[in-house]
Specification:
Keywords: Cell membrane, Membrane, Transmembrane, Transmembrane helix. It is found in: Cell membrane. The protein is about 80% helix and about 0% strand. It is built from 24 helices and no strands. It has helices spanning about 5-30, 35-40, 45-60, 65-75, 80-95, 95-105, 110-125, 125-155, 160-170, 175-185, 190-200, 210-230, 230-235, 240-270, 280-290, 290-310, 315-325, 350-380, 385-410, 415-420, 420-455, 460-485, 490-515, 525-560. The protein folds into 2 domains: about 15-325, no CATH class; about 345-560, Phosphate transport system protein phou homolog 2, domain 2 (Methane Monooxygenase Hydroxylase, Chain G, domain 1). The chain has about 575 residues and is mostly helical.
Length: about 575
């Protein structure tokens, strides 16, 4: 093989990988939020989880991507290890679809698919149609890459050195196994490495070895590739929570166990012996014929279907073992705060947007709790709340920083997100919630001064402040619920309630000025009173701002400006 052949092989591999990635991305974008909806249906039913994992992986064309996504969901506490187990095993089945597609050998039609995909991409106006075009274009480029590689590799069929090497691999299956692990760990995709092996077959590289000999060569390599695909998830587990690490380890264990039992079965049935007649190989040959490309695809599918089915019912003891080896540590909420927005979620923009919104919900609930504690400290002299409000303020600030950084990363994923100004609105609502926390801290300082200076409110002043606090509390609760439920009616009500809060503020100011004039209240108490009223009014304003975000959000949904919204 000269230098030009290596360059052509490298180019063909690049086209193949790019085509597969483009096809997967196109399918993923075309599916949009449906992909998230599918995974959201995962329950404790292992068979349902298996089916959903299979479907998702067929869509995104990569078990590695599905597994990494599952690791991210477990890390965000959106999926338990038991639920993740079924999805991971389903991903192993779903990934075999790529090999079956390649086995169809549609290389002759690659230019047609490329032409159709490119034409639609150039003239389409709708995003959905563009995503479908990306899928078609990727499909064509994938087969064009296969065509280039198989053409380059054809001379290997007549190369005695290469033929002898294949025969040697058949005699030493462990070497083939290790080769499969290495290649897939480097490429980080079992679908891609299986495709590369099939390109060799299409190019006639296995012409010198047929039937049992060919299977003796390719089967260990395919099994090794099944272990090598775990490398992506093992890399993804760096820097994630212990629960997510457990999901990655589950993937590695199930793949390794599967390869061990299959290799043991093949050795016991004499699959690698000279003149061996293993029933496994007999079955593969009976359904595949003499085509090594189809043999590779069918064995890959058969192994993963059987392995996933067997280990699905053995998943509980495997999970117990993993939980014993990698136990989850209990954490203190404040000192061990970890935002659930891992970069793994960016693999799918719909998930990333959804989980960013979930974290904003959590942040808003913390702010709501802080408002209750701070108000009671000021109005009802519950000074024991002061320290907790300070802790909650630190937590709110951490959420603001973490979510804001993640939202910036989301905006870089999809131009339609930027054009919709979605991230601008989301940044604003994060800031609004943080400002609510700041006003809670302001009230805490007021409470401290009130306590230190011995300021006492009259019964009427306390009642009035309690009434205004209750209005502000209800409006903030309404805004948070509107945000969670994406409820336009509740969002509109926050504006109406804010107007009532403003009227209440004017009413309270006039009433307290009257008390000051009648000298029924001290000037010191008057200053504290007005400060509390001002802080409560500002919290009411920011609650209405949250409602405003919901109105913008619902408008984007109605226009379907982009597909990443949950």
């Amino acid at each position: 093989m000269d230098i030009m052949m290596l360059i052509q092989l490298f180019g063909g591999l690049g086209l193949f990988l790019y085509g597969m990635d483009l096809m997967g991305e196109g399918l993923k974008k075309a599916a949009g939020n449906k992909l998230k909806d599918i995974l959201n249906k995962v329950t404790s039913n292992p068979i349902k989880a298996l089916a959903l994992g299979t479907i998702v992986t067929m869509i995104i064309q990569s078990s590695s991507a599905t597994t990494v996504l599952v690791v991210g969901l477990v890390n965000a506490n959106l999926m338990t290890l038991a639920q993740a187990a079924g999805v991971i095993l389903g991903a192993d089945i779903g990934t075999t679809i790529t090999g079956q597609i390649i086995a169809l050998n549609l290389s002759d039609y690659a230019p047609l698919f490329i032409g159709i995909g490119a034409a639609i991409l150039m003239f389409a106006n709708k995003d959905k149609l563009k995503h479908v075009a990306e899928c078609i274009l990727g499909f064509g480029i994938l087969f064009f890459g296969i065509s280039v590689m198989s053409t380059v590799l054809k001379p290997l069929a007549d190369n005695p050195f290469f033929t002898n090497m294949l025969v040697s691999l058949g005699h030493y299956p462990i070497l083939g196994l290790l080769a499969g692990v290495f290649v897939t760990a480097v490429i980080q995709s079992s679908s891609a490495s299986i495709g590369l092996l099939q390109a060799l077959a299409i190019g006639g590289a296995f012409a010198g070895v047929e039937g049992y000999e060919a299977l003796g060569v390719v089967v260990p390599i395919v099994l090794g590739m099944n272990i090598g695909t775990c490398a992506t998830a093992m890399i993804a587990m760096i820097g994630v929570e212990r629960e997510a690490k457990q999901a990655a380890v589950f993937h590695l264990i199930t793949k390794t166990v599967g390869v061990i039992w299959m290799m043991s079965l093949l050795f016991l049935t004499g699959a690698f012996a000279k003149d061996g007649h293993s029933f496994v190989f007999n079955f593969i040959l009976s359904i595949s014929g003499s085509d090594p490309t189809q043999q590779i695809a069918n064995f890959h599918t058969m192994f993963n279907v059987i392995n996933a089915s067997l280990l699905l019912f053995l998943s509980k003891p495997i999970i117990k073992f993993i939980e014993k080896v990698l136990p989850v540590k209990k954490k203190d909420e404040e000192s061990d705060f970890t935002l659930k927005l891992n970069d793994i979620l960016l693999e799918n923009p719909a998930f990333a947007v959804s989980e960013a919104l979930n974290e904003v919900e959590t942040m808003s609930e913390i702010a709501y709790k802080s408002v209750n504690l701070a108000s009671n400290a000021c109005i009802n002299n519950e000074f024991e709340n002061i320290e907790e409000v300070e802790l909650l303020e630190n937590l709110i600030n951490k959420y603001e920083t973490g979510i804001a950084e993640f939202v910036i990363k989301i905006s870089a994923l999809d131009a339609s997100i930027q054009s919709a100004d979605f991230t601008v609105h989301l940044h604003q609502v994060i800031h609004d919630i943080e400002r609510i926390g700041d006003y809670c801290m302001s009230m805490v300082r007021i409470a401290q001064n009130k306590r230190d200076d011995g300021v006492v409110f009259s019964e009427n002043a306390t009642r009035e402040l309690s009434e205004m606090y209750e209005m502000v509390r209800k409006n903030l609760r309404l805004a948070i619920d509107a945000f969670k439920e994406k409820d336009l009616t509740k969002a509109v009500k926050t504006d109406l309630m804010e107007e009532e809060i403003d009227k209440k503020e004017d009413e309270l100011r006039k009433a307290h000025i009257d008390r000051l004039n009648r000298k029924s209240c001290t000037p010191e108490a008057g200053v504290v009173y007005f400060d509390i009223v001002a802080d409560l009014e500002r919290i009411g304003d920011y609650s209405a701002h949250i409602g405003g975000f919901v109105k913008e959000y619902v408008e984007l949904l109605s226009r379907r400006q982009f597909d990443m919204l949950p």
